[in-house]
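Quick log. Single chain, no ligands specified.
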Amino acid sequence: MRILVTGSAGQLGLEFLELLKEDEVYACDLEGTAASHILDITDLRAVNQAFDEAKPDIVLHPAAYTDVDGCQQNPDLAYKVNAVGTQNIALACQAQNIPCLYVSTDYVFDGQAIEPYSEFDDPAPQSIYGRSKLAGERYIQSLLTRYYIVRTAWVYGQGKNFVRTMIALGQEKPSLKVVDDQIGSPTYSKDLASKCIEIVKSGQFGLYHVTNQESCSWYSFTKEIFKQKGITTHVEPCTTDDFPRPAPRPAYSVLKNYSLELRGFKLLRPWQEALAEYLAGE
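-> predicted structure:
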């Protein structure tokens, strides 16, 4: 199978490359050693040229501008990459009649729920990042009949991520304050990528939520990281208001993996188990 992967130098893109070594992969990104082809997805002509060269059977599209505060401060770039860039990918897929898997986010919800969001709940993004990613979803849905949209959350894996940042801080500082009033599901990029490929191979198109099971706060996540790593740094809970940021964060963004359940897929393992495997390889 010939597969075009956008964002191949990112956390999820790198996992796709690891899992697709037996396939013919056209890896592209703006930069990075994992990008064998340079591609700016905001340039429709460049996207069409890449598709003509790659002749893919399917596209995996995790490329995005994911800096939440950066998106809030630079909305033009956020919409250009996450919305228009995704529209360009969808247009190229439409022209060549091939399916696309688009990776979206828990930030499409407002965070006011008291139980996990399912794929049948209405989005109501509160940040520019969330709005731009939802715009990307809508371009995929309006331009393609064969698509997979995978919403995920709190992803960590290769490269810079929350787990590595906390470990570094824990080794440098005697104590830390970490937000305890934002709840989500930490998701290991390896598990996410594997499930995305399983979904694609099933041919069951549609909208999916894919996260590791169970939930926690950033504070609880940090406590578990330190416990598993044997780091003794004191961790103190604090509120979101204690650390004001340019972009609003959803207070509760746990995703119910309902489409996986309804279609008979096995759910991902609990986040604590996935974290243990990740840390063992660090």
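The radius of gyration is 18 Å.
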